[in-house]
Amino acid sequence: MHVDFSKNYFDLFGLAEKFDIDNAQLVSRFQELQKQLHPDKYASKPDAERRWSMQAASFVNEAYQTLGDDLKRAIYLLTLQGVSIDEETDTQMSPMFLMEQMEYREALEMAPDASDPYQALDAVRKNLKSATSEQLAAFENACNQQSWDEARTSVRQWQFLDKLKQEVRSAEERLDE
Protein backbone atom coordinates (compact mmCIF):
# COMPACT_ATOMS: atom_id res chain seq x y z
CA MET A 1 0.00 0.00 0.00
CA HIS A 2 1.33 3.41 -0.93
CA VAL A 3 -0.20 6.74 0.02
CA ASP A 4 1.27 9.69 -1.86
CA PHE A 5 1.29 12.64 0.54
CA SER A 6 1.87 15.02 -2.35
CA LYS A 7 -1.51 14.15 -3.91
CA ASN A 8 -4.40 16.46 -3.32
CA TYR A 9 -7.36 15.05 -1.43
CA PHE A 10 -9.52 14.63 -4.53
CA ASP A 11 -6.84 12.53 -6.24
CA LEU A 12 -6.40 10.44 -3.09
CA PHE A 13 -10.08 9.45 -3.23
CA GLY A 14 -10.30 9.21 -7.02
CA LEU A 15 -12.72 12.13 -7.24
CA ALA A 16 -12.97 14.93 -9.77
CA GLU A 17 -11.66 18.23 -8.42
CA LYS A 18 -15.03 19.93 -8.03
CA PHE A 19 -17.44 20.90 -5.29
CA ASP A 20 -20.20 18.41 -6.07
CA ILE A 21 -18.68 15.04 -5.22
CA ASP A 22 -19.91 11.46 -5.14
CA ASN A 23 -20.30 10.89 -1.39
CA ALA A 24 -20.74 7.14 -1.83
CA GLN A 25 -17.38 6.98 -3.63
CA LEU A 26 -15.79 9.11 -0.91
CA VAL A 27 -17.02 6.79 1.85
CA SER A 28 -16.15 3.62 -0.07
CA ARG A 29 -12.59 4.75 -0.84
CA PHE A 30 -12.13 5.95 2.74
CA GLN A 31 -13.15 2.57 4.13
CA GLU A 32 -10.84 0.82 1.66
CA LEU A 33 -7.89 3.02 2.66
CA GLN A 34 -8.67 2.61 6.37
CA LYS A 35 -8.61 -1.16 5.99
CA GLN A 36 -5.27 -1.05 4.22
CA LEU A 37 -3.74 1.33 6.76
CA HIS A 38 -5.16 -0.12 9.96
CA PRO A 39 -2.48 -0.13 12.71
CA ASP A 40 -3.05 -3.86 13.37
CA LYS A 41 -1.63 -4.60 9.92
CA TYR A 42 1.58 -2.86 10.91
CA ALA A 43 1.88 -4.03 14.53
CA SER A 44 4.71 -6.46 13.77
CA LYS A 45 6.44 -4.19 11.24
CA PRO A 46 9.54 -2.09 11.91
CA ASP A 47 9.11 1.27 13.65
CA ALA A 48 9.52 3.23 10.42
CA GLU A 49 6.65 1.35 8.76
CA ARG A 50 4.42 1.76 11.82
CA ARG A 51 5.13 5.52 11.85
CA TRP A 52 4.44 5.74 8.13
CA SER A 53 1.16 3.88 8.61
CA MET A 54 0.08 6.31 11.32
CA GLN A 55 1.02 9.30 9.15
CA ALA A 56 -0.79 7.84 6.16
CA ALA A 57 -3.90 7.06 8.23
CA SER A 58 -3.83 10.59 9.63
CA PHE A 59 -3.50 12.06 6.11
CA VAL A 60 -6.43 9.94 4.90
CA ASN A 61 -8.57 10.96 7.91
CA GLU A 62 -7.84 14.65 7.37
CA ALA A 63 -8.62 14.33 3.66
CA TYR A 64 -11.88 12.51 4.41
CA GLN A 65 -13.00 15.08 6.99
CA THR A 66 -12.18 17.92 4.60
CA LEU A 67 -13.97 16.47 1.59
CA GLY A 68 -16.89 15.19 3.67
CA ASP A 69 -17.78 18.65 4.99
CA ASP A 70 -19.24 21.13 2.47
CA LEU A 71 -17.61 24.23 3.93
CA LYS A 72 -14.20 22.61 4.43
CA ARG A 73 -14.37 21.21 0.89
CA ALA A 74 -15.19 24.68 -0.48
CA ILE A 75 -12.24 26.21 1.37
CA TYR A 76 -9.97 23.41 0.15
CA LEU A 77 -11.08 23.96 -3.45
CA LEU A 78 -10.23 27.64 -3.13
CA THR A 79 -6.85 26.75 -1.67
CA LEU A 80 -6.14 24.50 -4.67
CA GLN A 81 -6.90 27.51 -6.87
CA GLY A 82 -4.40 29.60 -4.92
CA VAL A 83 -7.16 31.67 -3.29
CA SER A 84 -6.52 32.64 0.32
CA ILE A 85 -9.42 32.95 2.74
CA ASP A 86 -7.65 35.35 5.15
CA GLU A 87 -10.05 34.48 7.97
CA GLU A 88 -8.31 36.62 10.55
CA THR A 89 -7.65 39.77 8.54
CA ASP A 90 -10.48 39.94 6.01
CA THR A 91 -13.58 41.45 7.54
CA GLN A 92 -15.00 43.09 4.41
CA MET A 93 -18.58 42.03 3.80
CA SER A 94 -21.49 43.55 1.95
CA PRO A 95 -23.52 45.95 4.11
CA MET A 96 -26.70 43.93 3.50
CA PHE A 97 -25.01 40.71 4.65
CA LEU A 98 -23.68 42.45 7.77
CA MET A 99 -27.16 43.77 8.58
CA GLU A 100 -28.53 40.23 8.34
CA GLN A 101 -25.79 39.05 10.68
CA MET A 102 -26.74 41.71 13.20
CA GLU A 103 -30.39 40.60 13.00
CA TYR A 104 -29.41 36.95 13.53
CA ARG A 105 -27.24 37.89 16.50
CA GLU A 106 -29.99 39.99 18.03
CA ALA A 107 -32.49 37.13 17.63
CA LEU A 108 -29.95 34.74 19.16
CA GLU A 109 -29.35 37.03 22.15
CA MET A 110 -33.08 37.44 22.77
CA ALA A 111 -33.93 33.74 22.38
CA PRO A 112 -33.19 32.63 25.98
CA ASP A 113 -35.67 35.22 27.31
CA ALA A 114 -38.45 34.31 24.82
CA SER A 115 -41.61 32.61 26.05
CA ASP A 116 -40.43 29.48 24.23
CA PRO A 117 -36.63 29.77 23.93
CA TYR A 118 -36.29 26.50 22.01
CA GLN A 119 -38.75 27.69 19.38
CA ALA A 120 -36.90 31.02 19.14
CA LEU A 121 -33.59 29.22 18.63
CA ASP A 122 -35.20 26.92 16.08
CA ALA A 123 -36.39 29.97 14.11
CA VAL A 124 -32.83 31.35 14.08
CA ARG A 125 -31.53 27.93 13.01
CA LYS A 126 -34.02 27.75 10.12
CA ASN A 127 -33.04 31.22 8.92
CA LEU A 128 -29.36 30.29 9.10
CA LYS A 129 -29.99 27.06 7.19
CA SER A 130 -31.70 29.00 4.41
CA ALA A 131 -28.92 31.60 4.28
CA THR A 132 -26.30 28.84 4.24
CA SER A 133 -28.05 27.14 1.31
CA GLU A 134 -27.92 30.45 -0.55
CA GLN A 135 -24.18 30.78 0.06
CA LEU A 136 -23.58 27.17 -0.98
CA ALA A 137 -25.47 27.76 -4.24
CA ALA A 138 -23.60 31.02 -4.84
CA PHE A 139 -20.30 29.24 -4.23
CA GLU A 140 -21.15 26.42 -6.65
CA ASN A 141 -22.24 28.91 -9.30
CA ALA A 142 -19.07 30.97 -8.88
CA CYS A 143 -16.92 27.82 -9.09
CA ASN A 144 -18.67 26.68 -12.26
CA GLN A 145 -17.85 30.05 -13.78
CA GLN A 146 -14.33 29.98 -12.29
CA SER A 147 -15.06 33.30 -10.64
CA TRP A 148 -12.77 32.75 -7.68
CA ASP A 149 -13.28 36.18 -6.07
CA GLU A 150 -17.03 35.58 -5.94
CA ALA A 151 -16.47 32.04 -4.67
CA ARG A 152 -14.22 33.41 -1.95
CA THR A 153 -16.84 35.98 -0.90
CA SER A 154 -19.46 33.23 -0.65
CA VAL A 155 -17.17 31.09 1.49
CA ARG A 156 -16.35 34.00 3.82
CA GLN A 157 -20.05 34.70 4.32
CA TRP A 158 -20.72 30.99 4.73
CA GLN A 159 -18.09 30.90 7.50
CA PHE A 160 -19.93 33.67 9.36
CA LEU A 161 -23.18 31.70 9.11
CA ASP A 162 -21.46 28.51 10.26
CA LYS A 163 -20.08 30.29 13.32
CA LEU A 164 -23.58 31.53 14.15
CA LYS A 165 -24.96 27.99 13.82
CA GLN A 166 -22.39 26.87 16.37
CA GLU A 167 -23.50 29.68 18.68
CA VAL A 168 -27.12 28.51 18.33
CA ARG A 169 -26.01 25.01 19.37
CA SER A 170 -24.16 26.44 22.36
CA ALA A 171 -27.19 28.51 23.39
CA GLU A 172 -29.37 25.40 23.18
CA GLU A 173 -26.90 23.44 25.31
CA ARG A 174 -27.00 26.17 27.94
CA LEU A 175 -30.80 25.94 28.01
CA ASP A 176 -30.57 22.17 28.44
CA GLU A 177 -28.42 22.55 31.55
Task: Describe, in plain words, how this protein is organized in 3D.
Helices cover 71% and strands 0% of the residues. It is built from 7 helices and no strands. The protein is globular, with a radius of gyration of 20 Å.
In short:
This protein has helices spanning 9-12, 23-37, 47-68, 70-80, 95-110, 117-144, 148-176. The protein is mostly helical and 177 residues long.
Radius of gyration: 20 Å
Fraction of helical residues: over 70%
Total helices: the number is 7
| CATH architecture assignment of the largest domain | Up-down Bundle
Strand content: under 5%
**CATH class (first level) name of the largest domain:** Mainly Alpha
Reported for the largest beta sheet, the result is:
none
Number of spatially distinct domains: 2
Mean pLDDT comes to: 91
CATH H-level superfamily of the largest domain: HscB, C-terminal domain
